Description:
three-stranded mixed beta sheet
Amino acid sequence: MQPYFFPYLGYWQLLNYVDNYVIYDDVNFIKGGWVNRNKILLDGQEHYINLPMSGASSNKHINQVGVGTDKVMKGKTLKLLEHAYCKAPYFENAIKIPEQILTHEYENLADCLVESIQLICDYLGISTPILRAQSMEIDPALRGQDRVLDTCKLLKTDSYINAIGGQSIYSYDAFRKCNMQLKFLDMKDITYPQFGGAFISKLSIIDVMMFNSQEVIAEKFLNAFDLVEE
Length: 230
């Protein structure tokens, strides 16, 4: 999977469930996606937060894009989070992670996102080994499903699991020919109180962390999914 900016709960369910998690940090950056932005709850509505970047281009890999050094812009994102969640029950603990990410300087976007992922894994007690594609000997000419299959072969795995949205991208037949199982993780409907308003689902993991204890997330939410097979 690509690294995303504080992605939704399903990303962490997948990361927690698998034996090895490969972050594709050497694939092209996609503008308008989730690599540098996500949604939070602000005044009862979903609202985007962004990680400032420098030199962003769809012709560059994620690990070639820089993180913006404008402290004012980063500060605005952090203040927005503080305004949105300062009255949430777990604010004091949860805010420390975005605070650390937004006040630190990173050489590139991939390094920043990987560190944010590792910090949240530590927070939630997820111990899955995280591998970076840039450090693996994946054939650089391969794209899409072929690249995934090559990655799986390098890891000598017999099973590949993707988020449910990948059903339109990957073929059961292609994996079967390589003696691998293909499965998809489908997050169940999960709700929790959000300041008493109508629940808004699939916001950033930051929202989940603000309203729920580490124990509830780890013991209840991370396992609330179905595996979809052929």
